[in-house]
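User: Hello, can you help with two protein structures?

Assistant: Certainly.
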Amino acid sequence: MPIKAAAIIGAGIAGLTAALALARHGIAPDIFEQAEVLTEVGAGLQISPNASRILDTLGVLDKLRSVWLEPEEVRLVSGSSLRPVALVPCGKFARERWGAPYGTAHRATLQKALLDAVTGNTLCRLHLGRHIDIKNMLALEEIAGRKLDLVIGADGVWSKAHAMVPGAPSPLFSGNIAWRFSIPEAVAPSVLSKTSVTAFLGPSSHLVCYPIRENAAFNIVAIVSGSGASRDWGAAGNKTQREQMLRGFSGWNRTILQMLEAQEQASFWPLYEMKAGRWHNGSDTILIGDAAHAMMPFAAQGAAMAIEDAFELAGMLSGREPAEAFELYERHRAPRISRLRQRAAFNQFAYHARGPIRLARDLVLSLRPPQSLAADMDWIYGYRAIG
């Protein structure tokens, strides 16, 4: 029997993308979100070609093109000497090589574009301010006022939908803290590039910076090892936590250190990843995005994987029973997620290298032309999701 309606838990990037992708196949989604108003916390994100291609298919990309920035390149730079280490070309090169653009934008910009598309779609229904204890389908059907064929848990690391999937993955603190803040372009130090994504590398820490065109600001994410993690994402770090962060960047270029020292309201984001576990219950509930496989941001693919998950799951649900679609989806997605985990772990090792390993890293990267480094990304950026 064809699937007619589905419940989606969470109205973030994964949930809203899933709603649009399901509606594209004639499946009516009810999206349940506990927040009264959708306000995306966080700051910027990178939308790589594997994700922007999907957003284009869903009719969302055009709204982003007018406000986002297509960086000319992704640069790796020494955090101490500010010496260039390597670069991967983007801009026109990305569109020609991978068949879709590479852009940077504020998370709120992407979420609003998705939300506008969802609210403008007659098949989609959004239920805000729903504090529900998700244990079975009946509670959701009572709110929706109709029979629901399945549940998609797209509600992140602290997923409530986990309760419906025995053996679901559980969050594990990674030992890393992300400090997030933005700086207006008018007062930003000159070491920050207005046309590129820049990753400054250092021992046991790194800092990623890129312009957010619609805000006339730079998005900064500083990642360093830390402790005392909690669920209080987005709060301003306390004095002890800030001192711990600054120690992680000791020995860095003084300009960057001064920039970090001045950010008294930088947001404290403990980074969690998911342990191995089941993504679905074999019958009517499945997890996607961070709810299924949260990973470290060292490959800058968190949002992209959520978008891919949503799009491919919707395609597999079209014309199939949920149980069959779930099995097919997991067999198809799990190897890609596993490979990306490995890539993120390798990037962490390389970015945070010290001593002789750092010197070897810099030498190897300096000998490789940009096109060769770009080829290493073909399997990520050139991926064409099935939908």
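That covers the first. Now for the second protein you mentioned:
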Amino acid sequence: MVFPVAMSEDTEEHLRRLTHDWQMIADLAFSDLVLWAPASQPGSNDTTGFTAVAQARPFTAQTTLHRDVVGSSPRVGLKPLVQQAWMTGQTVNPNDVPNPGSSLGVAVWPVMRGGHPIAVVTVHQNLTTQRVPSRLEAIYRLSADDVLRMIAQGTWPEPDAHSPTVVWDNPRVGDGMIRMDAHGLVTFASPNAISALRKLGISEQLEGRQLSRLALDYMDQRRPVDENLPAVLFGRSAGRASIDLRTVSLSLRSVPLRRDGERFGALVLLREVTEIRRRDLKLMGKDATIREVHHRVKNNLQTVGSLLRMQSRRMSSPEARRGLEQAMQRVDTIALVHETMSFTTEDDLDMDGLLSRQFTLAVEVASAAPNVRARMHGSFGTLPGSMATPLALVINELATNAVEHGTKAGGGVVELEASRRTDDDGEWLSIIMRDEGPTDQADTVPVKPSGAGGLGLQIVTTLVESDLGGRIEWHPRSEAGDQLPGTEVRITVPLHDR
């Protein structure tokens, strides 16, 4: 949501929470909602301009505003009503300003915060479909007016109540609604709400009964109860809770109704979510299985690494022993990636910890001199998990090569620098590996991994160009235009296609 002028952080947060939660109002009112924000700073001489910053359409009725009005100004007939609500801080009803030529009924409600208007909400109802409303429609519209009245009094959304997160089991008006009085007695229950409670085994008449006592009587007292459940069922405070009974799961949400600071009733939205919970449990089981697979792959790779280590000790040829050691290090690198992925279920990984650890280990394993140090700058950030193994192997090969061919007998420093940039072509990851070069290295001759055409070069080139879709370059090391001993390997990987 983009505001036409800068607002205080508290004001913006209040409006965001309002629009995050106002779908309930649109469904109860069978109407479209539009939020209008002032186009000039409060207190300025110009108080005539407003811009639509959010819009909601009802799921319970046909939309009235077929065109998206976000970013536009109020039309000629609506503008004075919005101005009147803003200037007076009072509601403007369609009956107050008759407009015989229009088939739209528009009610205008100020959004108050701290005793002052911060925005205006317009409620657009299609009058061409009006008829004698059913009891359900009448109570829905009454409930919508109650919530809108709280908005105009600055008491909704409640400052100390967190807006419900967008989750699949979030109850909606059409899923079932119960209206209660100040004593928690049910005054109305929609047909869907009655059906949902009957699936729990509650078949008694709801109206005139206390919902909290009725539901808790059916709960298994030996099983733990959601600590928010009593308050939600009674409507004392805004919140969410769940009931799990007889293999049936019910998600509930309460909206206390207040007038002049006093609670006079509450709305409880409820939804039967048994199938959703069952699927969630299956997904959780699959996530656990995936983590276990990564853990077992890591263990198997470590076993392979141990076997290679044992075999290398039996080799009399230094070249064969070195080859096995390099293979063992590559296996350990892949094992480290699987170990990291066994602790998360996310598709994206924070690469800084993983690649920093791999870089440090690769330098320590490859260095014979005690004074070879690994130094890392910048950040890889969060990247797709599919990039973890190729990046870790590339870092391992480059670090190993830098230690073997780019450090002196007395030690040295191997540097790794990572950064991200964005240009017209998208986002890019840049990786630079620097070494100091041996004393006898020519300044203009960069050293490639494992020698030209070696296995290390083939691994790095294949991983960068094929697996990561990037490019790799070797250059003599330079700083501030001055050429220095050593090699600088630069890798650029595109992120915009991932």
